[in-house]
Structure formats: structure tokens, C-alpha cells
Amino acid sequence: MSEWTKHDLLDLQGLSAAEIEMVLETAKSFREVSTRDVKKVPVLRGKTIVMLFFEPSTRTRVSFELAAKRLSADTLNISANSSSLSKGETVLDMAQNIEAMNVDLIITRHSSAGVPKVLSENLQASIVNAGDGCRAHPTQALLDMFTIQEKLGRIKGLKVGIIGDILHSRVARSNIIGLNKMGAEVTVCGPSTLMPIGIEAMGTKVNYDLEEVIQTSDVLMLLRLQKERQKDKFIPSIREYAKIFGINAEKLKHAKKDVLIMHPGPVNRGVELSADVADGKYSVILNQVTNGVAVRMAILYLLLGGKQQ
Amino acid sequence: MTVLIKNAIIVNADKMNDQPQDILLEKGSIVQIAPSIKNDKATVIDAQGKLVMPGLIDIHVHLREPGREDKETIETGAKAAVHGGFTTIMCMPNTNPVIDNAMIVDSIFKEAKRVGLVNVIPIGAITKGQKDEELVDIFELQKAGCLAISDDGKSVVNSQLMRLAMDYAKMANILVIEHCEEPLLSAGGVMNEGKMSTQLGIKGQSGLAETVIVARDIELAKYLDTKVHMAHMSLRRSVELIRQAKKEGIQITAEACPHHFTLTDEDVSSFNTSTKVNPPLRTKDDVAAIKEGIKDGTIDCIVTDHAPHTQEDKEVDFEHAPFGMIGLETSVGLTITELVEPKVISWAQMVEKMSTAPAKIVGLEKKGVIQEGMDADITIIDPQKEWEVRREDFVSKSKNSPFIGRTLKGQVTTTICGGKVVYQA
Amino acid sequence: MTEPHKVLDKEHIRRALLRIAHEILEKNKGHENLCIVGIRSRGVPLAERINQHIKQIEGEEIPLGILDITLYRDDLTLIAHQPVVHETLINFDLTDKKIILVDDVLFTGRTVRAALDALVDFGRPASIQLASLIDRGHRELPIRADYVGKNIPTSLDQNVKVILKEVDDKADQVIVVNRNQKENNE
Question: Which residues lie closer than 8 Å to C5 by C-beta, 6 or more apart?
């Protein structure tokens, strides 16, 4: 296996297939740690990890925090927003201030694309992108791929349908990039008004016919529909969306027999997924959550290890 | 002050002289052009190996005074202008307060006169406070010295109000400049909508926001049989609409900015907030079309849309950074590097786009040509000089340029305004 | 020494492991309550072989675990790239068990220190005993083996290589090489 040389995790565009493989392989080893009585290994003892979130998040933040703690790193949470920055202070100022306290790694999330990249160009600390704008959410895509590999034994050659609000989804974008690198074939499906222009260029097909996507996919990845999209008039109504682009047991009758139902959470039950499907035998939604911790442990381990150059 | 320029290769829009001439400037006018002039009192400038052009005119800049003097002032803007080779600049009214009455116009003229480097001519607003509700007192602005009105920064969205403004402006003999952006279509978009915005996950604004207003204003100009000037055109479709309108004899003029013929939306992937500009950087195809438009005359003139912003304002995330980049000090270099050197346009056409045409569009009768009797506004350029754009070399108060680090060809060596040498490299 | 020097061959190794199995059973008075844990990577096949000998003697295997000590190493900040982490597989409760920890070469003692730290995270064993095929000396920590296949005095510029069929796909042997010398059988 190749050596890990990356200093930051900003997006999956920046990782090779071999590096993605390495993350997934490493995560496999870390999965076991979370099943022990003592769910902690000393590997990152003495390292300081700051979670600098400019956008509210519970699930991703908790997952990262558990990952860091199980590796014995010290963690600190900073929930910031534009109002908690004092007047004239920029995001970069704040990050530089935090770094000046000898922080080793900063996990960050921001509603605006590019913030993690700018931080990585200006800071010594490793940067992990926990979501920037609609651009990238690399750890989510990695844990999704990990879950697919765990359940189906491979990624290469699989057909993956990503369904929902593609326009505003960083999860979709990171998965398209990652799944392509790993040899899967991706199709996106959703209302045309929530389909970004030129998405094909990122390496996906577009199909507005959900039934066809259900029939042909090995994996169905549903995205959360933000309720504001109706207010912004992207869709006529949540009701119509649920009818046309939601998945229920009836529609799933035509799916492959070992299809995986995935969702980055939290699920709008009755909108993108009916409750019986979300909790049903095809659903691996909770596995995704469990695997999220292992994948994030792997990322933190790989990024923070080694001699400082 | 008497100035004698020796060995001048004079470039006018209609002709580039092949024989060097001497030019004598006195009392603010060009008094004599001849193969050899002797004058003992005159300050002599040897223009050997340089190109001598009529003073460059930028009819689209933002000087931020009054209101945001931390970004730029009339004084710093004027210094940047002469550093970039400009002798006349027209400043947009989106200041605080908005330039919508004679008092503010007077104050700007007064401050510009005190600074004394460059002709500063304020552009008045079209609507009071640029609120898109009531027309300004257009005659008052015209009599105060404004040559044009514009709500730059935004469109006059209310079509009826725009119709009335164009109609009234025709009577008052003042130019209407339109910033073409339908705000509901552009809302929230911070870069060009397309493949790049999809990849970068940044909310895009579609070209529709620009073209629907271009199309509307062409219809208004045709119906009213009057003039309208289109600010900072950025799209192939806009160029096509204007080309067609001109063919039909509609009195439309248009401008483009150096960044719209140099950069594309791919440059946004650096997340450098200096690439955030309105209208946004478009695609390679649009850049090609803007160049074609400049070449064939669809685009009449080159302007900078010089939009200074402080580091504090720009050093935020891409979405929240203000739109705009500075341009006065890179415009000549970019125009030569991107258009003249690759032979998209000739030196004479460069003079046309950067001096003669803008003078004509706004009605500056004594400017835009080197000819006896005209104003002594002269820009001298070293066409061979290669130079690197460096942050510390900007005279402008703000440094928000995406061109820092780029090597350009062609540099201003001397700027003469009203017969006075106002900049010398 | 200029040539790689073979110190144990296949038969030596087999006999050493058989003896260790006997010693383990003798010292612990049978196999009751015993577990065996191999340290990745070469400790694992050695633990499996000892367990087979125990089965031959006692008619029954004892529980076997696999331990990856990467996450407990004390030199992670000193090496350029993170070593690959492999899975740890201990599918039994260690509490109140007598653990036989198995490794190939006992040298500085740091690997064993890491393994001890790792083991206690899985429970509280009654005791931990250490079995090592080779003890080459040069301890940096107060650690000793309870069962040793062979003591091989070495100098610090030498390497002891244990080659095992299961891991290396080559005939079992133990060789001593000088650090700056490439083994001619590799």
C-alpha cells in the first residue's frame, strides 16, 4: 500500500483512488476500536483538534468528536457564526488565532464554499473539511463508500443512484467524485429545478425518471430535502415532491433484491423516504452513522501521524 | 506650463503616424504638431521608442467618496488613474450619499479640482437614492456638469421608470448608462452559473440576468429613438443582441472591462475573492465573444469598473465578499497584452476604445484626439516594457486585484493632463 | 560477519515452539483459563503453531487473539508516515484470563510495552506471560520473556529476521544480517 502524504482533507478531488482505498482500509481496522469496552486508543495522545464550525451541525460534529476522543486527542468545540466574529475580524483571523495556540488539526464547516481551502493555504495545522457550502463533504462520501463496500463487498462496477436536491448538495458532489474514482457508475435524479447545470461534467448521468433509477441501481442514496426549497419556489410543493421523488415500499418492489437504501440523515420521514423503508431491511442508514466514526478516525489518524515536516 | 514632447509616434483612432513628430502643449491645449519644434521655455519629454496617445478616458470607475473613504478617495483614485494612464475618469454615483443632486456633484468637482491630477466627472444617479422609485432632477445634474446618469450597481428594474428616464434624458441631452442585471434572476448568485459554479458548489447567477435587461433596453431605445449605453457587457449573447441592434440602427453603445476579456469562471476556483466581480467572470466562449465584439465595433469602449474594496471587506469567505476589483492601474497592460499583442486590435483601435470612443459617447468634444486645438491630455506608453503586477506597486488605496503576480506587456511612462505632467514613471 | 547467518532452521523452530508449549502447560498446570494472543504480524502464526502443539498435548485448543499494536506505539511522531493499521481481533473476554502474549523477536521491549497497554484496554487479565521465539537482548525497558525459543546475542548494527511460511511464503528460518547488508536470499 502506498504511503499517506496528504496534509489536509479538503475534497475527494484531491485524493487518488489508491488514497481513498487506503482510508477505507484503515477505517476497517478502526471499526473494531469502537466495539471494545475501553473505546479508546492512545495513538493521538497529546494532539489538539479544534472543531471550528461556522454552520450548525450536530451529527457530523458529534461523529468527529467521538472519532477524535477515541484516538485520545484533546478536542475543543467552537461554534461560530458571522455574529460571533467581532467587527472587522475575518474567518482567517479567527483561525490564525486558534492556530497560534498550537493546534494540530482544525475540522471546519462553513456555509460558503472554499473556506477550508483558504484556511489550508494560510495555516500550518491540518484542515479537515466537514462541509463547505454546496461544494464538498468528503468524510460523508468516504463513509458512504465504506458502507457500500462493507455491505456489497465492492464499489467498482456498481450502479449508484443519488436522488433529491442535487443543486444544494455537497454530499452528492463528493459522492459523484469519489464513486467515479472507485469505478462506480453514478446517476443523479431529482426535480429539474434542483439539478445543477452541467452536473454531467462531474461524472454522472442525469435521469428524471425515478422508477428507472430504482430498477437499475445497486445503491439508492437519498438526500434530505430542505423545507426552504419550497419557500424558494424550486418545487411546487413538498407533497408533490414526496409523491414523485420520494421512495416507499411500493416503488421499491421494482428494485434489485439486495439494493441498499442510504441517507446522510436526518431523514424527513414521509418526504424522501417512507418510514417503513427508512427502517426496513434494505436500509443501512444506521450503519452509515456507525461507520462514520471509524472513517473519521482513519482520516484523523492518517493526517495527524508522522513527523512534522 | 509649456511641455514639448519630442520624437512622438502619435497614435490616433483613425491613424498611427509612422514619422515621429514633436508636440507642443501650452495653456492646457495642443498648440502645435510638427516634425521639429524648438521651444526654450518648455519642459521636454523625449518619447523616442514610445507611443503617444490622446489621454485615456475611463467612463466607469468607483471612487467611493463620499462614504467609503477607507476604500478609495477622489485623491487616491486620481493618483491611481494617472498611474494607469488615464486623464479623464467618470465616477459612478453609488456612493453614500448617492450622487443624485447638484450639491454632491459640486463637491466632487471641487475636491477633484483641489487634487488637480485628472479630470473627474461624476455620473449622476437615475433614480433618487438609486431606489428605483423616483427620477432624479435630471436637468439639475446636467447643468451641474454631469454627462451621464446611471444607477450602476443595479438596474433600473421598473421598466416604466426606465422608459421615462430615457425619454427625459433625451430631452436633457444626457447619456443614460444601464447596469444590466435583473435582480430576481441574479439573486444570491456570486459567480457565473454554469459547469464551474456546479463544480465549485457556489451559487451562480445566470447570464439571463444580464441579457433580459439588454434586450429590454434595446427595445426601449428603439421605441423612444434615443441613446442608451450598456455598462460592462460580459456575455456572448449580449454581444449578439447589441450587434443586431446596431445593425438595425438602434442608438446603442456598449463597454467591456479588461477582466471580462482576460479571466474566466475557472479563475474563481482559486476562491480568491478578487475574482468575485459583478457581472461575474464568464466562460471562455464569452471571453472570445467579448474580444470579437471589441474587434468588430459592437463593443465601443473599454472601461475598468475600478471597484476598490478594503482587505477587511474582501478577506472573508467568497459568498460574503463584496463584488468588484480594482482596474485603473492594470487596464493598459491587460489591453495591450490580451488584445494588441495577439493582434485582436491595432494600436489605433486601442486608442479608439480607450479614448476617442468614450469621449464621443459622453460628449467630451475637446478630448480623445491628438490634434492642434484639442485639450492637452496625453498618455505615453512604452509598448515593449514587460512588468509584473505587484501588490505594493498599486497606488490605489485598495489592492483587490486578481492580476497580482501576472506579467503584462506595455506600460504607461508619462501622463499629461491639461498640459501638466501628472505622472512620470 | 559479512554473510547473512542462519541461526535456526525449520526443524529448530518447530522444536523450540513445541518446547515452549510444554513449558507453558507445565508452568500453568494445564491449559485451563489460558488464552494466547499473537502480535502482528509474525507473532500471529507463532501463536497459532504453539496453540496447535497445545492441542496435540491437551486435546483442546485455547482461545486465540490477534493484536495490532500500531495505535499504541511510542514512536509515531518520529517516523515520517503513519504505519498501516491492521485489525485487532480478540473475540473473547480477557478478564481473569491468563494471557500468553507471543512475538517473534524480543529486542528493546517497546513492542511488548505497547501490547501490554493494548491488552489492558480489553479487560483485566489475571496475568500476562510473554513468549518470544528469539531474544536478542538490548532491552530499553524492564521487560523479560517467560518463554524463549533461543537467545541470540547480537550487536546493535545487526538485524534478526524471522522468516515464516505463513507470512513470507518461504521456508521457516531465522537469520542474522548486518544492517547495511542486503540479504542474498531476498
Answer: C175, C176, C177
